[in-house]
Amino acid sequence: MFKRIKAWAKNLKKQIIILYLAYKDKRVPLYAKIFTACVVAYAFSPIDLIPDFIPILGYLDDVILLPIGILIALKMIPKDVIADCEVKAKEMMNNKKPKNWIVGALIVLVWCVVTVWVVIKMYQFFS
Asked: Where are the transmembrane segments (predicted)?
């Protein structure tokens, strides 16, 4: 059972990389790029719809919502693009994983802006 879960997680990771690569491909329609970007951002984001610390429910979004989003995104992308991205994803997974510091910095920036906004609103509310 543990091996099946590990294989499922590895396949999920590969599909996220495929979507990431497909998002950057010029052959993908705009609507598919937007949806794919949302799915990839959600997969890499530390923010969940249901926080992970909530027992059982916290992991449902990772187990149900993310695979459904991946499935829908893959259906929107042309098959030839997926085939090309699968090859690239396999190479990336065999080699060193890329680090996207720009996206990481953007997520940290968004969290900082949200935190400052909440603090300002709380200060205004309690003043």
From this structure: 30-47, 53-74, 100-120
pLDDT score of 45 more than 80: no
Do residues 110 and 90 both lie within one domain? no
How far is residue 20's CA from residue 80's CA, in Å, rounded to a whole number?
15
Same domain, 126 and 105: yes
Count of C-beta atoms within a 10 Å radius of residue 5: 9
Q: How many CA atoms lie within 13 A of 45 on its CB side?
A: 19
- Residue 79 banded pLDDT, cuts 50, 70, 90: very high
Range of the domain at 7: 2-96
pLDDT, one tens digit per residue, over 54-77 is 777 777 777 888 889 999 999 999
| Single-letter amino acid code for the residue at 85 | C
Q: What is the largest CA-CA distance in the chain?
A: 59
32 contacts 69 by C-beta, under 8 angstroms:
no
